[in-house]
């Protein structure tokens, strides 16, 4: 489990960077442009004090700034959704996403990501717990929220008899936003199909249009449920660029995915859901630090190890966490890279090792550990992760 | 206000749906048939045409037009998930239902008004010797529109209360059979059941009570309200209830029809507001 989010302190850092001039690692993404956007959100009195920030009112204005900045984009407290007696879709979720943050919400299918998003959007009512979006209660102040956010719902169909242009016009009108419809369509790359009914669109085009609709009206927060589904690699790259540009202008982005690589390229922080619970919450760097601890070695050998070469022998080596044998390849997950040589030696004593592959634990594997490791029989959805199947294989071979 | 944005988008969408127009075309076809029938008659009567329109049209076609136009209005979006696009925008669930009602009512009333206008043209061209009763025709059109409004409201309400296309269709067909065919036309309707129960229990009852039960369905109220548009003395037993009690007067039929607009809609909104749309 990660720590509480760093949103307020981070904004404090941005503040320091800009005003006092302390260099910051956030300056690439959260440079002056980011700051400008933030200031736009301040109340007039704050802005005034910001101008005389080096005067004695500095402290006071900082305090106001800090108070203002503690309104998180998303905050859930013990958020729980039960379906019937047996199914616990989301179990006591505590999550805070800061303003201007790109937050990746990860997990295998059926982990509770969409249910969480549906509760934030008031499509589904929580069984218990609370959620706020931009400081507004997700159940009682839905219209205030919907005026300020852009949403790409999961698996929702468009109106197939309406054209792409009519869709964007409709969103702009409902949000009372003054929007250049062509610019929006251009931005998501479907301007040339603007006047075709969406019934004839490919999945990728629909997804692009959905993304465009979410961007209408300069939302303060984007909630995107599996935004990359149906997109080709170019589309995914375009989407990433778009999310970065939005975040640069100060928009918070909350998006879900079941693919880690998609998330790591853009996210400030990720939360990993599994079976309705948040099993990890950290920055990508934090996850990576954790991931480098482990290492995997794969050894190909000539003949099937005889019975006395059973895995417990390798498992007994200090620092070996997990071993599997399949198709003449032994895979051992080690707590420390230095243990790999011990595994190689131990196996070499028993059989002829023909090849060795060595890898550090990737984020992907870490993700699998988080989401597969806690899987148990009777779970609502098969996670299908390698972590789980590894465990099963081990049970069979051991 | 937000309901209007829902209605505008829905109107844009639904008027391109071909299925909506099939029952309307059927209605026009029947209407032309009635005019043609009168054109072959020795002394053509405008009231006869109106009566045919009221019975065949009122019993079968108006409910069909309205139910087909509206039964998918909310449930279809819920099944396809597009309601999630709709509800991501600053509109409430009540706005969605009201907007749907607005748009479907304007489609249905627009189509019916066009049909009635075609009817007038047919009257002038097919049966020029017949005198058209414009005043009564206007009342008849207004009453029929109210009746259609009740059915659209019922269909939107059923749609709002159901989660899928198939259930909405089942609900709409079920309503049509129970509150139209069975209630008013089959000898197993509640009117007959009530008589049976009264007699079994040895309770006294008046025919007006049974007639009131008959009038409680939208179709019953419409048929008993027709006296507003017809000279009742010319059509004894066919138009108007023939009772003096207040709850069988024509104005009370209007009250019943308005209740059929308001009550189902309220229930539908109530259900839709509580629904999980995951």
Describe this structure in words.
The complex is a heterodimer of chains A (398) and B (278). With 398 residues, chain A is an alpha/beta fold. Chain A folds into 3 domains: 7-69, no CATH class; 74-285, 3-Layer(aba) Sandwich (Rossmann fold); 289-397, Alpha-Beta Plaits (2-Layer Sandwich), CATH 3.30.70. Helix content of chain A is 40%, strand content 23%. In chain A, helix 7 (164-174) packs across helix 8 (181-187) and helix 15 (363-372) packs across helix 16 (386-397). With 278 residues, chain B is mostly helical. Chain B has one domain (2-274). Chain B is 74% helix and 0% strand. Chain B has 12 helices and no strands. In chain B, helix 1 crosses helix 6 (93-126), helix 6 runs antiparallel to helix 7 and helix 7 crosses helix 8. Chain B is globular. The model of chain B has no long low-confidence stretch (mean pLDDT 89). Chain A binds chain B through residues 114-115, 118, 121-125, 142-143, 146-147, 149-151, 153, 155-159, 161-162, 166, 170-171, 173-175, 210, 213-214, and chain B through 2, 5, 8-9, 12-13, 16-17, 80-85, 87-92, 274, 276-278.
